[in-house]
Amino acid sequence: MKKLISIICMLSFLMFFENCSSQTGMDPQAVTALINSRDFSFHAKRANPTNYDVINVMTSMPNAPATRILDLTGSNYSIDLRPGKLEVTLPYFGRVFNPSYGGNPSDNSYRFTSKDFTVTENQNKKGKWIVRIKLNDTRKADEIIIEVSKFGKAFTSIRSNDRQPISYDGYITKNEEQKVQP
What we know:
It is built from three helices and ten strands, in the order ααβαβββββββββ. By secondary structure, it is of the alpha+beta class.
């Protein structure tokens, strides 16, 4: 009887972990449909700064991990791509060569809306999508590259003329329907 109870406990434990692991990604057809529609959101979970000054400050703090990754959980940092509109709300950690003095401190992060941009996407042999967004009407960023795995995990890098590059890890989701105000 004791062996039967231990076997049942072990099987239920394995079933629990299998159910948890199956919720980590999206269906590959859903990811393809999102990319082709050009109507999705990238949600950032971690930031990867490339500036060694930022990395040195991060590692010099007490009880700090030895990694150069900043956890962004609990925040709503995202890139919302819609037909004709791109909204970017991401933090920036690194060196800004043309900062805004005396103004709003959020001007030094990536917070902007663009209506003049071009999007190109292509898929490699292993199923990974590469979405390139070339911005034409903002000075904050030149190009945003989003690499999306076939299960919805994403890696985003932003290239700009006035600051060092930065990348973000996260995932993509379908955009929520916007309600029109009368």
